[in-house]
Amino acid sequence: MTGGFGMAGRGEKMGKLWSGRFGKETARVVEEFQASLPFDRRLYREDIKGSLAHVATLAKAGVLTPEEAAVLERGLREVEEDLAAGRAALDPELEDIHLAVETLLTAKVGEVGKKLHTARSRNDQVALDFRLYLLRVEREIGRALHGLAATLLDLAEANRDVLLPGLTHLQPAQPILLAHHLLAYFEMILRDLERLADCHRRTAVSPLGSGALAGVTYPLDRQAAAEALGLPAITKNSLDAVSDRDFALEFLAFAAIAMVHLSRLAEEVILWNSAPFGFVELDDAFATGSSIMPQKKNPDVAELVRGKSGRVFGDLIALLTVVKGLPLAYNKDLQEDKERVFDAVDTLLGCLAAFTPMLATLRFRADRMAEAARQGYLAATDVADYLVRQGVPFRDAHAVTGRVVRYAEEAGKSLEDLTLEEWQQFSPRFTAEVREVVKLPACLAARDVAGGTAPRRVAQALVEARTRLAAGVSWLGNE
Question: What pTM value is reported for the model?
Fold first, then answer.
């Protein structure tokens, strides 16, 4: 049962699985056009894992003898070892990874290898392989997102007292803590993790035993096969099982939303790194220079993350377009699913691998942030709220404060610079207390509501965030 890893069963190349029906060879251009081996070869581990479960199921159903099952199981494990070690080459003339693995197996174990495909179609086989692949990479992506979320918390805790101008429309709005700003992105990434976990649960369903579309004629224990694969459930309808790609669409939707969040944070880094802001300085290891301008230090990692979001959006739209008009059950159009998902997986993992350490090494310029917070009249809302507490209706208080801001702007003064006499030109309701109200630490402390930027609330949020991040991630494993 050993022997070389040639592509033939005992020296003879295995023909197409469906060649018996046809009287002539497939046109070369068609073979090249429909071949999926160049990209689905990455599914070989999942294909072998599914085949091992199928062998056990066939043996339990009496389709295979115990001896045949043992030969097939040993052969499959040897094929996996040889592929992993690079000792086996996949024949590029073969149509897909499923035929490639079966051909390698038959070359190794002989005629019994041809029994592997009993009670199985490539339709339920590829659906299973694809699910198993996504389950594996979802855990890998989840661990990378967990690392990003932890990095955001580390940065927030290390900069918990840094003041920052909060913006709307990219205009100065209200003072906030940098930690509060970073916690906003933490919330986004935590939602991404929750979405991924939900997607993972719906992916962990076995279609094995559904056959081509209507089920199989052998007494297979589908639930036992699923449990052998670590899957808690089986599909309920054979037509749906082989044609469903909701799990792939859901993954791509998750990936697209996650890339939105990475892109938004990347844009913040790009803005903050620019000279007009000067809020952050990039570590030299995560920046690049110019071929002509010696002084340049460019945020290429952040810019690429921002740009690569479009790839993942395109992957989602492409697969939505593929499946939107497909009749039941399987159609060859579904071959387009894997390249889209593979691209999204590679893009998202690549972005996280570069972006998280770039973020971790940022140096925040607290002095520049504090200076920016002193501009733009960030305490204006607090002035209006002060008047409301003095009995002035908010709309009137808003108008009075607007006139104060215009006066200060024309006089070249900050709100803290105004004398009590100047304040009282606009309303007799202003007292000496207003000069304390407009100090930025007071503005921060005043926002003492759940989810607010008050230092006390941010400190609580940091503690809670650690607990929330640790909860509900047992599915990620330790790989």
Answer: 0.92
